[in-house]
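May I ask for a single protein's sequence together with how it folds?
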Amino acid sequence: MSMIDYFLSLGSAVFVPIVLIIIGLILGQGILRSIRSGIMVGIGFIGLGLAISLISDRLEPAVNQIVERFSFNLTVIDIGSGAASWSCVFHIGWCSNYSGGIPS
C-alpha cells in the first residue's frame, strides 16, 4: 500500500504524465513519442497550475472583501470552467485547498 501512496503523492505534474507514457506505450506510440508527450503534459500542468495560482493570489483579497462586505459564508474561489476544469481535476484537487468551486 505504501508504494501506491507514494505514487499518488507525486502530484499531478508527475503522476498524469507517467500514466500517459504508459498508455502511449500500450497503444504502440513508441517510447520516444510517449515520453515526449508525457513531458509536454507535465509542463502544461505546471504552467496551468502557475497561472491559476497567480490569478487566485490576485483575486483572493478582492473576493475576501466581497465576502466580508456582503456577509457571505464562502470558503472557495471558483476559477471557472474550460481549460481550468482539467486543472481542478488533476492539479488543484490534489495539491491545494481549492476543490473545484464547491463551498463548504
Observations:
- The helical segments are 2-8, 12-26, 31-69, 83-95.
